[in-house]
Amino acid sequence: MAKSNIPTRDNRNINKDHSELISLDASILLAADPTHADIHSIRIKQENVESVIFIWLDPQEKSGLNLVGLLRAINHHVQVFNDTSTCINAIKFSQEKIFFITSSVDSSLIAMVHNLASVEAIFILALNVDSIKGDFPKIFGIFPQHEELLRTLKEIFDIFEQIQLESFVFEHDKLFLWSQLWKEELMNRKISSKKETFVAATRQHYRDNAMINRIIDEFDKSYRSTEVLKWCFHSPFPSRFLHHALRSHNQEQLHACHFLFSDASRFFQRSAKRKATEKVYRGMKLSSDLLDILKAHTGQLVCTNGFFPCTKSRANALTLASIPTYRTDLLPVLFKIDCDASVPSIEVADKHSAPLMVFDVCTSFRILYVNRDQMTIIKMRTASDAGKKIALDFIEQHQDKTLQSLLGELMRQPMTPKPGTRPDLRSTSRPNSNSQRDSTLTSEEIKAQKCIEKGEIDRALAIYQRIQPVTPRILNAIGQICADRKEDYKYALQCHIKALKMQEEAGEHISDTLTNLGNVYHNSNQYDLALNCHTRALALHQSSQTPDSAAIASNLIGIANTHWARREYPEAIDHIQRALTIRESFVPPNKPSIAATIAILASIYQDCGNIGLAIDLSKKALNMFESFPSTDPSVLADLHYDLGTMQISTDSFEDAYHSFERAVKIYSKILPQGHPDRVAAERDLQRVFDLHKKNKTNK
């Protein structure tokens, strides 16, 4: 056991004061009658509005402890589970960061949770530490006593909020464009939301949290716009509520917070201008994968989803980046930022260290260089004018639309092509397919494929990883499983790159490996690299003496998806239509692949604003899929849901209602209660019902 990575505590007396375990679920958040509330408050009640969830898994209630109140004293949102499988499903589908607390010492469970991307930290309440074997850098301790666990949990949570909480969006990401447009809307809207709206919404959400309600009362009585930044950084409230609004882009939450962000931006604009460029620093701990992405975007713009606090003290930033007790799998990073005199920043007191230098929300920076070393140095320069220009150019290109309508269209799904949101379009052989197996496969490879077909992904990986010698085919199989089934793009990338190198050295065909690489780069938001790989693979397939039309169509779709993610809609449409033409020419026709291609084309048209054509194509794809008995029901549900979102944007409320109704019916059969997709469909079904009723009343 790697004890350096799994610290233990020596306290032996477990307090039994809290004997009744309270289970929290979505019904608590839905307890209030929404009849007299508006749409904004309804949606805020139904969703978590903070960026971190504490999950307490106590199988069969064996600890006998009620930790809910104690955990909520640290973080508002707590979920309790007694059933392991239900808990794992909740984590898999979570959009928030998870702090996982458990009384289980099952090594296989800990390993499974540790590998889930949304899990940030693990804390174990147990006397027996010897049963947990392995190197688990996300584990922050095995505690025999819950008081020590809670103390450490709070310390780690405080560190996390300093060095890990922000996320980055890059120049070609749609979310970057959205953030710059939202900033323009924030500054230009004449009528903002009111403090009363914010107070009412937050009181509704935190109605069963006495501590936060006391802070809300204080805010309601004492808030002044001259103290806006003091409040924006006041933890736990409202700083966590504001951060989640910016991170999740929840429109109703942003609406409630609008007056605070507006006051903050105006406060920044009124602040005294600096006479010269200043240097500030930020220490963080980031994954190697994210550092690769930052390096790939050298020379381009980036912004964060919040105020991005920095410090004038290089020493303080280095200390924060070098915290040895926080996640040894993350790498220390020092941001060095040149602040142009024209970009406002304000000094704010900080309880953890020296005063912070704070930039306004969604401030743009240009990445000058990324120097990977024991301490990675990322040099950036403020570039607010460049971000503003992107927003203004987009507004100029869409003069027939309001700024609010542009923001709404950018936030409609799909934001970018994501793994699993569309039917599988690749025609190359995959380790998890049911297609005819290669006759040259070894017995171990066939055994691994059978495990995948039964859903035993970790077992399949273990089989592949022990096969010797390691060939490009094995590496590609492992890479595909990691990318498609585990969303571990960093390891998938390593496998495909190693396979490519081996094939190039041996003079073997590399087109399929390039396609795999293109898909992984795309899912890692490295669109330039994805486009390069798909373009190279397409050229190789087209120049072959016996061109593979299916592979050519697959690469055309990969190229289309990359252009789509970069908002290059004409190029995306051209390549997807070329792929569709090829797939429609097959004899006999592969109707599922045709339907899938039409569905992607519909989503691209939806994304670029041609809603009428998108609706027609979606209906065509849906009709084709419904004619296939073997169609995955989740695909049908997703298509019905997407169709409903388009129909509601054209005020076709009755059609939208029927689409959401079908989506809910399917989700109810295949997804557990509380699953994000099911909750979203149920929520929008109610919303369109209310809108339809209101529309009929107005007529």
Automatic annotation (TrEMBL):
Compositional bias segments (type: Polar residues): 428-443
Pfam families xrefs: TPR_12 (PF13424)
Disordered, as annotated region: 412-445
Keyword presence, Repeat: yes
Segments annotated as TPR repeats: 511-544, 637-670
Keyword Calcium: no
Source organism, top-level taxon: Eukaryota
Alphabetized UniProt keyword annotations: Repeat, TPR repeat
UniProt protein name: Uncharacterized protein
